[in-house]
Every structure is written in C-alpha cells, then in structure tokens.
Amino acid sequence: MKIYKLIIFFDKYFGYLFFKNYNPFRYNLLDMFLKKKLSKRINNNFIKKFLDDGYFILDYNFSVFSEKLSSLINLQDKNIDKVDYYKFEINEDIKKLIKKFVNNDLSDYLNKLKEYFNSNVYVTNITLKRNFYSSIADREEIYNNFYHNDAYVYNHFKLFINLMDIDVNTGPTHIFSTSDTRKIINMVRKYKRNNQIEKLDSEIIPYKHVGPSGKSLFCFTSKCLHKAGVPSKNKFRDYLIITFVAYPNKENDNCFYYEENFEEEIWNGDTNKLTTNLAKPYNLKQMLTLYKKFI
Ligand SMILES: [Fe+2]
Hints:
By secondary structure, the chain is of the alpha+beta class. The protein has helices at about 1-20, 25-40, 45-55, 65-75, 90-105, 105-115, 180-190, 260-265, 275-280, 285-295, and strands at about 55, 85, 120-130, 155-160, 175, 205-210, 215-220, 225-230, 235-245. α1 (about 1-20) packs across α2. The model has no long low-confidence stretch (mean pLDDT about 95).
C-alpha cells in the first residue's frame, strides 16, 4: 500500500518536474509519443492551433442552441438558496437538444478531430450546472475553483459552453495555454493543485471565457491549467461542459455510441467511469494498448 502511494507521488512529482503541469508523468510521456505519432496528421489550422495553445475558441457562437437550453433549464429552477452550485436535471428534451447540437453544430470540428486522431470521437460526460458565489472559495475547493490539470491522456478534451452572457463577475472559466501553464507552474513551485497561482504577481494572465451566451471553447484540460471562476455576490454562471474522448473503435462511429451501456455515466455528470475506461490507463500494459490503438 505504501509503495503504491509512493509511486503515485513520484508520478505526480515527476510530471511537475519534467513537464511543468499537474498531469502524471506517465501520461505526459504517453502524450509525447502519441503526439509524435499523430504529428503527420495535422493538416488544418483548427487542429494546429488547438494543439499549440491547448485550447481553441470556436469561431461561431452557438446562441440558438444555448438560448434553447437555457430556457429548458430555467423551467426547473427550484429553491436553490444556500448552495454553492446547482446541478440541473437532464431530462429527455435536454438530451435530445444536446445530441442534435453535437451531431449537427459541432460536426465540422469533430470531423477534423476524428481525422487527426484517426479514430472516432465519443461523448463520455455531460455537465450542466449553475455556480454561485461562495465566501470560502478562496481557500477551499468547492467546484474546481483551484487551478488544476485533469489527469487523463490527451485523447480526452472538453467543450465549455456559456449558457448566458458571461463577464468577469459571473465567474468565467479560466485557462492558461499549454506554454503559459509551464511558465506559471515554474513560478509557483508547487507540485499539485493549489490556490497560490492567484496570488502570484505575474504578467502571465489566464484566458477568461467571457462573452455572449453560446460562446464555446475546446480545451485539452490535461495540458492546460484551468479552473472555474467564482461569481461575485448575488451572481451566478450557467454552463455546459461536454467531455469527449477520441478512441479508435471500428464498431461504431456514433458520438453517443456508449450511451447504450453507460447512460448514467454520460448524463449524470458526476461519474467518470466511461471517460476513465477510454482515456485513463492504469498500468504500463494499458498504456501500451492505448498507444497501439492509434495508427
Ligand atoms: Fe478540470
């Protein structure tokens, strides 16, 4: 048990030491080899920029979609006083709307990602939430409000969609590009997620996802430090996060293919079982198997 803990520690510490991010060392290593393998497949500006920066702001604001979704979630507003965040219930109408959005509005982007990864792209998790102001968020982790990297291989990425007009007071998502992530971690000298980055007097400023309802961005959250902003008092932020995993599976190219067996995991928002199965290999054997799947 102790040895296992030690391995976890060094995996994390070496990730920090050699790659300057908070993703485990072995995932950074696998990413490096996988990126090299797929480098010949970069053939358009979207993929190039997304890989270079670690995030990509979509050219088009999906305001029709976001306003429809917003009106559906606002139907279910209950008494939500005295909570830090609220998880919206995802009913059949909402599922239908999100599926249509993924299959139609996102198809150009997803096709390019499929081409680059030479695999299918699957939805593995949907998060639909409202974050409120929290008086303790500066010192406690409430809703991923401390900078962190998600611990996955980079076949895992997320789409963040604003469901209302967002400014700095409504707690936008904050993201550091891949290269700024390296710089800022070098400055803060901490090997795991922390709330000190805020306090650095640095010229390196994160991107804040402010803008109109429907504004969206893709992010390799394992590569870019990111966090949820904290809304000001009496303010809140409604947002949707769609988690995707690129995974070679010849059986079926439907983005929602895994819904058949992992319905709860996809729509319930809190469990990461499916994402884990596809983008979080546990041992060397699983890592090699994943690497070999991408041709
Ligand atoms: Fe995260």
